[in-house]
Amino acid sequence: MKIIEHETIIDVSKYSKYLESIKDYMPINAYNFASETGHYDFYSKNCTHDLQLDKIEVSYSLENRLQYFLYLKGSKFKHDKDLKIEYTEVESFKINRKNNLNDDVPYKDDIKIDEVSLDKSSNLICHEIQFHNYEIVILCKNLIHKWI
Fold this sequence. Notes:
Layout: H1 15-22, H2 28-35, E1 52-60, E2 66-73, E3 83-97, E4 111-119, E5 124-131, E6 134-147
Antiparallel strand pairs: 1-2, 2-3, 3-6, 4-5, 5-6
């Protein structure tokens, strides 16, 4: 992650200033997701913390461009809805397992923190999602989220 500290403690204090600095260069949908009220408030229903990956879908759009959908299940203790994120014109989609895992550790785990940033080299949106046991990193033209 470029802005948010997450290794020892989670520190999002610099992130809102960063988002403001790139706001004019981001698609409005991606900015709205990253800056949504409650996104980084761990007690909020709109916080991504504690969501679990339910499924990933890959398809082609009407323009014949690759798109991905992430379906994230809400925690029964906090969320009243699930989250669906659509990634359009995907350049890269990676799932990286963390090094300290044994082969028998399940991939079903909850989100620790996520960050939406602007990749300066490609001018694409980078969405990094840190789970406890792995991470997902997506480079795309835009992302659209919906609580369902």
